[in-house]
């Protein structure tokens, strides 16, 4: 869908549909009132008759005769004015797009949602509208014999006040960059494991290097072994698809200490010799969703040209069982020198992250944030509505939680008490890679914390938020790209 911006009055636009909005219980004002009078008061009639109230999620589709240049008018409900925020704006935009997709419309023209009475900054409102409209139009059709395309082709943002146009254009540009970076991450997650292998992920890093001027360094198995990344190498050993360690560097500011983003890139998690069950294994192509978030965020910060120094690290491996696979009982030596005893080869994410977190140290980071589909326990604790947040730094947590509120990728802090570390004390090595079911998200984080002692660090367990089981507003079924907008927002407010 192409995005354009136009100065003008919404009721005068020539499009297949005009989109305006209404707060719950309100009477039409501004652009909505202008459209209402242009269609002989049909909107106020619908409100008077009790057919439309402006509740969030509600839509009213009208057919105009010759009084205006567009045959359709869609009014989307914004819900109560008091609770309006950028997430309401995103959902309203998605609601409009999802209502009009598949109809005879190809070109739609919309006003901003909440740019006036809603109290959103024009730039934020434009970003929300474009970001959510594009994300709602995301489709993954690569593996169909007959790929379907979406019917909507153009979205025009209409604004009558010329003084608002620069901010509106800037917001639209950010929205496009964030949506395309999120779509990139969704694609990586949605590609099956036979395509999205560790080598494939490395190829994506090279593509980012070419298209966005990001410096990349890729370590193959031999280089990783030579460096001493015993944990990452061990996890990759049972697979015919060799592991890769991927390092990406974006230099929007050369002098500052960097923000380092680290992603778990298990391209398929069979569990290894501690093999998963049929129902447990089925969705495990998504076990590289943390890596996908890092790739997406690298693309977004580069495309937005943020004045920051950002490093992206991805520990990529496929966790498979075969004669060469690592085993329960093995004692691995990590890059840090610390050793880990394997209780379950299915607790592999923390192993590959251990080496990546040690590698991060060389950049003298201002902060390190890792993202990982790490534990089923975190899904049990928080469901699909928030990612678990674990950290050794309160100030970093505050910023992350704020960024998560702004993008609606919500985070909830969980404890990292010393007792969780005691629970993974090793019998023959420094620690073991599983503490059993109790507090499973916290014991996994406790293991990671052993490798993240030299910088402010936060770990996001995105096992529950990485994918969606249904189409929901601007999320589509499958990989959602959780973390791309969050990490980019963190870089923006840093
Ligand atoms: N990738 C899984 C965690 C996961 C589960 C992600 C469900 C998304 C949805 C991880 O590697 C894993 O298998 N964790 C184990 C750890 C256990 C063996 C200590 C788990 O959570 O069961
Ligand atoms: Mn696993
Ligand atoms: Zn895993």
Write a short abstract of this structure:
The protein is built from 16 helices and 19 strands. It has 494 residues and is an alpha/beta fold.
Structure characteristics:
Leucine Aminopeptidase, subunit E, domain 1; single chain; binds ligand BES; binds manganese (II) ion; six-stranded mixed sheet; 494 residues; binds zinc ion; Aminopeptidase; elongated; 2 domains; eight-stranded mixed sheet
Radius of gyration: 24 Å
Give the overall average pLDDT. 97
- Strand line-up across the major sheet: 7-8-10-9-13-17-14-15
CATH class of the largest domain: Alpha Beta
Description:
It is a single chain. With 494 residues, the chain is of the alpha/beta class. The protein has 2 domains: 2-158, Leucine Aminopeptidase, subunit E, domain 1, CATH 3.40.220; 180-493, 3-Layer(aba) Sandwich (Aminopeptidase), CATH 3.40.630.10. The protein is built from 16 helices and 19 strands. The chain has helices at residues 30-38, 42-48, 86-100, 122-136, 165-190, 198-212, 221-227, 230-236, 278-281, 289-304, 349-360, 376-382, 394-407, 418-423, 440-449, 484-493, and strands at 2-7, 17-22, 59-63, 72-77, 107-110, 154-159, 215-219, 244-251, 259-269, 309-319, 331-333, 339-341, 367-372, 387-391, 411-413, 431-432, 457-461, 467-468, 478-479. An 8-stranded mixed beta sheet has the order 7-8-10-9-13-17-14-15, with helices on both faces. The chain is elongated and about 80 Å long. The two termini are 31 Å apart. Bound molecules: ligand BES, manganese (II) ion (MN) and zinc ion. Residues 269, 271, 346, 348 line the site of manganese (II) ion.
